[in-house]
Amino acid sequence: MAAVAESIKRYSRFFKTQQAMDVLDYGTGTMRNAVYLAQEGFNVYAADLPEQVNKLRGCPALMYIERLLATDELPQSNLNVDLVLSTYVFNIIMNSAERHAYLDNAVANLKPGGYLLMEVRCRQPQVSCDSACRDYFSCTECSKTLTHEELDGLLTPHGLRRISHYYRSHAVAAIYQMG
Ligand SMILES: C[S@@+](CC[C@H](N)C(=O)[O-])C[C@H]1O[C@@H](n2cnc3c(N)ncnc32)[C@H](O)[C@@H]1O
Q: Does ligand 1 have an atom closer than 6 angstroms to the CB of 98?
């Protein structure tokens, strides 16, 4: 299984000290982060688009997961988790309405005071994506990136307040808390 996302390695001790042990990995992909956290003692739900959920059915790693959900189950699943994880998902959702629907589902399954950990690709201010790219804000490849200010602008209207963030080479990770 692929290595766990950097932000999860970095922040999992913080979540343990906050007793934020019930987790929804939203856009779980191959479940690399879900399995890592389950092995660390967290109770992990995993969700993804229906087509990805179908690919995961029968996967041995599901033995670590409390429940695997398709995204269309999330509006009524009421998981009441302490933490929603979102790693390298939000930056690939390019449609504004879909982004807001994604955040609505995250918040609908989060306890008051719960956390959202988001890690996304970040923009490289000095770098264009290839030699033909002249405008990294309108280029399709480069626009699949976000800054922490852009995340704030999208997440704050959903009642999420940033309490920590950091940048590393190609990514920004931020923890938000439900007000
Ligand atoms: C780049 S993968 C990241 C997977 C995983 N979070 C990780 O870090 O390994 C993006 C995942 O997001 C899922 N995805 C795309 N759009 C989504 C949406 N609107 N809601 C939930 N998951 C979505 C894709 O199916 C895919 O599994």
A: yes
What rounded mean pLDDT belongs to the chain?
Answer: 92
What is the torsional sign of CA 73, 92, 7, 151? negative
pLDDT of residue 111: 97
**Taking the mean position of all CA atoms in its chain, how far away is CA 164?**
15
Q: Give me the pLDDT at residue 144, please.
A: 81
**pLDDT at residue 135 greater than cutoff 60:** no
* Helical (H) or strand (E) element with 33: helix 32-39
Candidate CATH numbers 3.40.50.150, 3.20.20.70, 3.30.70.270, 3.30.2130.10; the one for domain 6-178: 3.40.50.150
Q: 49 CB under 6 A from ligand 1?
A: yes
**Measured from the CA of 52, which atom of ligand 1 is nearest?**
25
Q: Is the CB of 88 under 6 A from ligand 1?
A: yes
pLDDT band at 138 (very low <50, low <70, confident <90, very high): low
